[in-house]
Amino acid sequence: MSLIRCENISLAYGHVPLLDGVDLQIEPGERVCLVGRNGTGKSTLMHVLRGATAADDGTVWRKPGLRLAYLAQTLPEGEQRSVFEIVAEGLEGLGAMMIDYHRAVQALSTDHSEAALTALANAQQVLDANDAWRLEQRVEEVITRLGLPADAPLDSLSGGFRRRVLLGQALVTEPDLLLLDEPTNHLDIEGIQWLEEFLRGWHGSLLFITHDRAFLQSLATRIVELDRGHISSWPGDYRTYLQRREERLASEAEQNDKFDKKLAQEEVWIRQGIKARRTRNEGRARKLQSLREERRQRREVQGRARIELSQAERSGKLVVEAENVGLAYDGKPVIRDFSTKILRGDRIGIIGPNGAGKSTLLRLLLGDLTPDSGQIRLGSKLEIAYYDQQRSQLDPQKSVIDNLELGSDRVSINGREKHVMGYLQDFLFPPQRVRSPVSSLSGGECNRLLLARLFTRPANLLVMDEPTNDLDVETLELLEELLNDYQGTLLLVSHDRAFLDNVVTGTLVLEGDGHVGEYVGGYADWLRQRPQARDTSPAKGAGQGRQKTKPPADEKSTDTTTPRPRKLGYKEQRELEALPAHIQTLEDEQAALQTRLGEAGFYQQPVEEVDAVLARLQALEEELATAYARWEVLEAPPQD
Q1: DSSP letter for each residue of 137-204
Q2: How many helices (H) and strands (E) does the chain have?
Q3: Cα dist. 620→37, 43, 611, 627 in Å?
Q4: Cα torsion through 622, 624, 627, 632, rounded to 10
Q5: Beta strand 318-329 pairing with 373-378
Q6: Which residues is 342 bridged to in the sheet?
Q7: Tens of pLDDT along 158-208?
Q8: Which pLDDT does position 400 carry in this prediction?
Q9: How far is 329 from 182, CA to CA, in rounded Å?
């Protein structure tokens, strides 16, 4: 039985409908990702499902007794209430009673007056009368499970921990369906991985919006796309969706071409001379009017941004050199004994927990900060363009066009001049939007405007601090292509694992206690190269970086990806010889199941059979990953 079902939902703001006859249902145990371009109405649809926004037409049916919880993408600011109070608030009326009791207990620790004792007794009596003690235990269990400091004020926590608190507020209701709108915003890589693992082990149903492709691929069991007001459903994982979506768009383009040719032929016919009019078929004329109306109402696929980066004169071969650099704040080392050499054309990613010092490292490398020890040497002919994640370069009171600060109505990109209106249209700003104040833009639009502003300035050293926030997947992929073709040098801070893997050639990783590790390749390459996995358990303090942990000297490592310390034994040699055939068997089974997914009527089978196939596919992915990792270990050169 479905948990929630909407039928023929329509909703418009202005003359273009965001939702145009949308049908959607969510089943128990599903993890559904809602995808679509920025501004297509994904968050609006989520608000309609939870009852916060009324549709213009259509119905939303919810299973009787459905418990539904929602996690918004924006985080509260200036909230001084404690973590316990925020989480308990999810229980509404009973939560308020528990908050009163919790405050009374806290007050009694410093105030032993008669009034404080009376307040505690009254609060306890209210909980007794409403049998609310089990709910208080549930609040404490959620706080413990999420690794949260119960008595800390919310505003004292990092963005990642505040996100956990709001998740706790949603989970304390024990929802059947959890709605998450951009849950990875404000999280560092460790926070995203923690959330990913948590949600994979959670047994309720999930509807979420995200632009993090690695998170999406790991979590979703079905993709639902909102495109031009309509919904299409794509069972399976993200890779399957991408493949089948390309096939659908190609088919749609072919059908549109046939339609347009037919319309063009009919337009030629209606405009023929007197001879044609004598034999004109009035039914054919009416059909032409129908074709014209159908073409007028067609909503085209939203265009891709057309981004081009102004190239500056080549810099010197050496871009930045750091030698034994150290920097501390209040006696605490942020960077310790750090040395590196960055050459022209390098694309360097910077990885680390929130608050670990990534932006500080950037400022050191650019010469904006003077180190306490060591030295930084910058190369010659550097022209730097900086992308700021805080958007401080944008004036919210000025219009989109005024924030470009061009001084004229023309922009020059690599020697070619373009009118500023056309340039902004390349970044998906329609003419009626360019006069709007920046304060009215969405997060994705602000980021596109920052990119538009940045790329008007010729640069041979591009510095980007979290450029992927709020960008839709299509724009992310286009930005990846641009950066891969860029001839200059790139310094990139990002928590987007797929983006790092697709763009950077090397990584600097803040690994705790001021140590910065240097690795070849992107995020996945760092995972393989790092000498010892760091502790990923929830931090006891808010937003603190986790330290590297080393096993005792006599403890044998069980990490199958580390080089083996000896030659292969007989059993290992036989295992190595058998692995290729085993991997081939797994891949053949995987291909067969993928073929079944694409068969007509597959998803009309009983839910148990569909779930069994999807679960086996997931298990095969994990088995293949383990087999390949083992093969790599066994084939590595032996160490004597």
Answers
A1: HHHHHHHHHTT--TTSBGGGS-HHHHHHHHHHHHHTT--SEEEEESTTTT--HHHHHHHHHHHHT--S
A2: 19, 20
A3: 31, 34, 14, 10
A4: -110
A5: antiparallel
A6: 320
A7: 777 888 888 888 888 888 999 998 888 777 888 888 888 888 888 889 999
A8: 83
A9: 33
User: Beta partners for 213?
Assistant: none
Q: State the Cα angle at 498 between 378 and 212, rounded to 5°.
A: 115
CB 490 within 8 A of CB 504: yes
Angle between helices 607-635 and 570-597 (to 10 degrees): 150
What gap in Å lies between CA 210 and CA 216, rounded to an integer?
A: 7
Task: Please give the Cα distance from 101 to 65 (Å, whole number).
Answer: 28
HSE toward the beta carbon, residue 464, CA cutoff 13 A: 29
Amino acid (one-letter) located at 439:
S
Give all domains of the chain, ordered by start, each with its CATH number: 79-158 (no CATH), 318-529 (3.40.50.300), 570-635 (1.10.287.380)
- Output the pTM of the full model: 0.64
Label residue 185 exposed, middle or buried (CB < 10 Å: 0-12, 13-18, 19+).
buried
Residue showing tokens 């010469």: 367
Reported as type and span, the H/E element at residue 31 is strand 31-35
* Position 382, amino acid: L
Average pLDDT, the chain: 78
Confidence at 141, pLDDT banded by 50, 70, 90: confident
Kindly write down the DSSP assignment for every residue of 282-297, as one continuous string.
Answer: HHHHHHHHHHHHHHHH
- Find the radius of gyration of the CA atoms of the chain: 29
- Per-residue model confidence as pLDDT tens digits over 372-424: 999 999 999 888 888 776 566 778 888 888 877 676 777 777 667 778 888 78
Cα gap 107→497, rounded to integer Å: 45
Q: Which amino acid is at 469?
A: N
Q: Kindly report which listed range (109-118, 218-227, 282-291, 478-487) carries the lowest average pLDDT score.
A: 282-291
Measured distance CA(289)–CA(285) in Å, rounded: 7
CA distance 443 to 441: 7
In this predicted model, what pLDDT tens digit does every residue of 581-621 receive, in sequence order? 888 888 788 878 877 766 656 656 776 777 788 778 878 87
What's the token pair of residue 333?
């080392």
pLDDT higher than threshold 70 for residue 69: yes
Alpha carbon distance 338, 369 (integer Å): 14
Please tell me the predicted confidence (pLDDT) of residue 585.
85
Buried b (16+ CB within 10 A) or exposed e, 493-528: bbbbbbbbbbbbebbbbbbbebebbebebbbebbee
